[in-house]
Amino acid sequence: MYLVRPELIKLLKSAALKSLKIKISDEDVSLEHPADPAFGDYSSSLALTLAKQLEQSPMAIANTVAEAVRKEKLYLEKVEVAPPGFINLTLTKEYLLHETARVLTIRELYGCSKARAGQTILLEFAHPNTHKQFHIGHLRNITLGESLARLLKSQGVNLIRANYQGDVGLHVAKALWGLTQVSSIGSQLTKSRKLGLEKKIELLGEAYVEGHKAFAKGGETEAQVAALNKKIYEKDPSIMPLWTETRQWSLDYFDLIYKRLGSHFDRFYFESEVFAKGLTIAREALKSGILKESQGAVVFDGSEYGLDTRVFITGTGLPTYEAKELGLASLEFSEHGPLTKCIHVVAPEQSSFFKVTFKVEELLDPGKYALRQEHFDYGYVDLKEGKMSSRAGNIVTALSLRDSARLKAKELIKDATLTEVEREEVTEKVAVGAVKYSLLRYGARRNISFDLKQSVALEGNSGPYLQYTYARARSVLRKLESAPSLAGFTSASVNLNPEEGAVARLIYRFPEVTKAAAADYAPNVLGDYLYLLAQKFNAFYDKHSILKAAPAEQELRFLLTSAVAQIIKNGLNLLGIEVMEKM
Can you tell me the distance from the alpha carbon of 169 to that of 167, in angstroms, rounded to the nearest whole number? Predict the structure, then answer.
């Protein structure tokens, strides 16, 4: 068997050529899944597209094409025409059940393809700055990035996971100023070295808030922070031991979070690593006329390209984020061989920044950079109760959110056969899955008002609901004394009732959903599909017994239940969410 959508597109193109003597492209052939199954598994508006060009009525064109399609069969039970000119295609029971059986043949690979084999994509995500807390905004970034990484890899992409972290700059200087200049914080520094990692990070957060206040006041304290910033760039021995120590606190803290979220990276880049190279490249760009001097600074005048003017080197000779980006790009595009694309998962306020740096890089080396960089932005996250700010100190950290989710998740774990250790493991998976799914279920560019109670709910479109559906399916399969032998199973021996048919008519769509979710960078498309599949499966499960069914029916229902469980497992894995056998 094969992915049926592209074959249907070929069939409609061939039918149009034979019956209408017109050659059309794949893009001309729309194929959608009708919301009402009475209109088939696929519906095409091809006739509506061609009507103006051929000067014929859409219904006449649809009937002509439909008649040509009927002659080809191709796993189609029905080919019908509906006003004002839709061609509706219904797949055969044989195709649906053959594809369902294929799920159990290839299991973890179902939904994967080699469609994008040969592409090398560097996906840069997470991006927490050292000396600052990892908050819910970072959590959306890493959750999105992790899912995109898995989706792209599932389609055959050679994927490189990168993480660019700010370990120099004003934010670091502010934190170190707070540690060294605010006595109430400085006095805790020695004590904190004997405490756990989370206490150290809390201290850094307090120091940053105080340092930011000092810098914002202007005058002497602003000058002190600026001087400290310069010392860090110059690697002044008077500050480097503290910088090194506290930087490692942050990196250890981030590593803990990555492990708890199930993320990993192939390459960590740091601003301290790229700023010198960025300065060199920016100065070369100044000599070549791409950048220019302005009031003692080095800038890019974007007016010629409809872009902003942005500073690359400050009047004091320090590199800005823009100059550092030049150094980063140089490394990213030289360390991994030719890149098809470099995708930066970064919040939308950096839109102007990326437009300018991409343009400068393109002007520096069009063969290397042109059309190969992309800024993937995403919406903001706030709690339902209000906004957060690390500068003001009122943020919700990733770990505190996870801990809150764990408390609520414990209430959902009902399986009495779980040991205490198993219960803790399941609670962790449910809590992390709940938070992740809540951040992925919406379109990436949509702003989110995060609702913890809603995220850790066993009803509705939530991570726990999908995890529970998987556990429910696995539970009933375990209750069968022995798995039915499918060796003699044939589609001719059974008929699909409405609930069974509803499940079967979703199963075959999974590969095309994963392909579309990867192509559009849209994990929410996959989430919507899994929720619909879970709904249809639970409706089937509630109405029809598997354990008490007649042999032929039991074989069919075992097949459907096993396939649904496998697809939910595969789909949640692509979202970065774990499943559990018991819940």
Answer: 7
| Contact assessment for residue 31 and residue 42, using Cβ atoms and an 8 Å cutoff | yes
From 346, 332, 354, select the one nearest 127 (Cα to Cα). 346
Structure tokens at 476: 């009933």
Instruction: Please choose, from the candidates 573, 394, 518, 439, the residue with its C-alpha nearest in 3D space to the C-alpha of residue 142.
Output: 439
Backbone angles phi, psi at 323, to 5 degrees: -65, -40
Reference 454, options 439, 468, 469; nearest CA is 439
**Residue labelled with tokens 């879970």:** 534
- CB-based contact 549:555 (threshold 8 Å): no
DSSP result, 493-506: G----HHHHHHHHH
Q: Over the Cα atoms of the chain, what is R_g? A: 28
Residue pair 534/469 in contact by the 8 Å Cβ criterion? yes
Token representation of residue 324: 């550092």
Q: List b or e across 290-317, with b for residues whose CB sees 16 or more CB atoms inside 10 angstroms.
A: bbeeeeebbbbebeeeebeebbbbeeee
Query: In Å, what is the CA distance from 266 to each residue of 164, 326, 486?
Result: 11, 20, 42
501-513: per-residue pLDDT in tens? 999 999 999 999 9
Closest listed residue to residue 357, CA positions, set 164, 221, 536: 164
Tokens of 547: 């354990």
- H or E element that contains 297: strand 297-300
pLDDT category of residue 186 using cuts at 50, 70 and 90:
confident
Q: What secondary structure does DSSP assign to 247-281, as a single string?
A: HHHHHHHHHHHHHHHT---SEEEEHHHHHHHHHHH
Alpha-carbon span 408 to 462, nearest angstrom: 14
- pTM for this predicted structure: 0.94
Question: CA quadruple 450, 451, 452, 457: dihedral positive or negative?
Answer: negative
